[in-house]
Design goal:
Helix content: under 10%
Structural class: mainly beta
Radius of gyration: 20 Å
Subcellular location: Carboxysome
Organism: Thermocrispum agreste
CATH superfamily: EutN/Ccml
Largest sheet: 5 strands, mixed, barrel
Strand content: 35-45%
CATH topology: OB fold (Dihydrolipoamide Acetyltransferase, E2P)
Pfam families: EutN_CcmL (PF03319)
Shape: elongated
Strand order of the largest sheet: 1-2-3-5-4
Order of helices and strands: EEEEEH
Keywords: Bacterial microcompartment, Carboxysome
CATH architecture: Beta Barrel
InterPro entries: EutN_CcmL, EutN_CcmL_sf
CATH class: Mainly Beta
Number of helices: 1
Length: 111
């Protein structure tokens, strides 16, 4: 998944028939602070996002995985609207507890 910001909309009156009724958004990739870092791209929008909103988008075959985009000619899809980003959590104090065992050992298998 990639973080992006919706910067506009795209209207296409003549298109692949499977895309009839679909909404297209203009997006630019964004960094962890929401600052724009990429070129403008067109994405299929199944979330109803609007200009200025921070979104998550997927590319390639992943763009056709959501139920609303299956069988569509899509290479870039918006799949979520971001409510909040929390970057740079403060360091956590060491609790002094023993490190967690691997899943294999926890399940009783030797590693």
């Amino acid at each position: 998944m990639e973080l992006a910001r919706v910067v506009g909309q795209c209207t296409a009156t003549v298109k692949e028939p499977s895309l009839a009724g679909q909404k297209f958004a203009l997006v630019r990739r964004a960094d962890e602070h929401g600052e724009l870092i990429g070129p403008v791209e067109v994405a299929l929008d199944v979330t109803g996002s609007g200009p200025g909103e921070l979104v998550l988008m997927v590319r390639g075959s992943a763009a056709r995985q959501p139920s609303q985009t299956r069988q569509l000619a899509a290479d870039l899809s918006i799949v979520a609207i971001v409510d909040e980003l929390a970057v740079g959590y403060p360091p956590r104090a060491n609790t002094g507890s023993a490190p967690r065992r691997s899943r294999a050992r926890a399940a009783g298998r030797a590693s």
